[in-house]
Amino acid sequence: MKYLELDEQWVSQIVNLWNRELGADFPMREVLFKQNSIQDPNVLLSGSYVALNNQDQVVGFVVAKCVQDKKETLLSQEVGYIQALLVDSQFRHQGIGSALLEGAEKALQKQGCNTIFLGRDPAHYFPGVPLEYEDTKKWFEKRNYEASEVASDLFRMFKPDEKFDFIKPKDIEVSLLNNKDEFLSFMHRCFPGRWEYEAKRYFNNGGTGREFVVFRKENEIIGFCRINDEKSPIIGPNIYWAPLFTEGLGGVGPLGIDTAERKNGYGLAIVKAGVSFLRERQITNIVIDWTGLLEFYQKIDFEVWKQYQQYSKQI
Q1: Please, which residues bridge with residue 214 across strands?
Q2: 95 shares a domain with 197
Q3: What is the chain's mean pLDDT, rounded?
Q4: For the chain, what is the domain count?
Q5: pTM confidence score
């Protein structure tokens, strides 16, 4: 078995392996894998490998991530991530997965990481291990990964002619975003960290604002909701698995309201606004990803679709 550093030349084989093993639940596309696992600046190449058999075929891979740009202050410098680790089912129980994980962990530790999460990385695929993958959960638990919360993806399907009523809250103006600098200032003030980082990444990738619904009060932004569809410049996590749907897929989230304006019902209202904009685009299948607020979203008839067990390890 040979272990080589992750490189774009292996993408087609990796995606084929992924789809043989996981494609029924999580269909991978080359464009998505390149976006999240090749082009993302947080990929740690010294901890990301492919395993090749004697015919130079990819039979396993691991992608590790951490912040390597010390000028990047919006993400934790001490946290590492295993974005994905997968071994061909015909080559398991030969120590390949253990070798891939050990190499990734050592590289992350060398970068100064003291905690490793499974998933949850910037440009992640999963917020944890899919809940139904019992063997995978046990495998990581044997390697000292500790379970914590369960995260959920939610789903609602609309009939093509089904109405969705959104009533604008009093004193609120609703629109798609049209001022990048104003929005980034709002994010820096109210949501510094990952959401601000992702907003900057969005604009750096050609975003124009059509993916953000904003609430204004007295001409100031007080809340936002991100919406994704097939025309978005970045494939967002709530539309990763769009190939499962012949009619396409839209996504809602993340969203946030200025702390000074909470408890006024604006949170649920801005979700409804996001759904309303997607329905205007004739999108019938909508996902809300990575949340624990099941009762909140059930108020507008979103139900659990996929769930994930979150894991971490101290190193």
Answers
A1: 175, 224
A2: no
A3: 97
A4: 2
A5: 0.96
Give the residue among 150, 47, 26, 29 at the shortest CA–CA distance from 99: 47
Distance CA 145, CA 313 (A): 5
pLDDT band at 165 (very low <50, low <70, confident <90, very high): confident
Q: Which domain holds residue 201?
A: 155-306
Residue 190 lies in a domain: yes
Amino acid 70: pLDDT:
86
Return the H-helix or E-strand segment holding 270: helix 266-280
Task: State the CB neighbour count (10 A cutoff) for residue 258.
Answer: 18
Who's near 73: CB < 8 A, 6+ residues apart? none
CA distance 43 to 31: 16
- How far is the C-alpha of 198 from the C-alpha of 189, rounded, in Å? 15
**Cα–Cα dist 264/280, whole Å:** 26
Residues 127 and 151 sit within 8 Å (Cβ to Cβ): yes
Residue in the block written with tokens 């100031």:
220
Q: Is residue 145 part of a domain?
A: no
Asked whether residue 44 is domain-assigned, the answer is: yes
- Report which residue type is found at 267: G
Distance CA 213, CA 64 (A): 33
> From CA 232, how far away is CA 251, in angstroms rounded?
11
Confidence of residue 187 (pLDDT cuts 50, 70, 90): very high
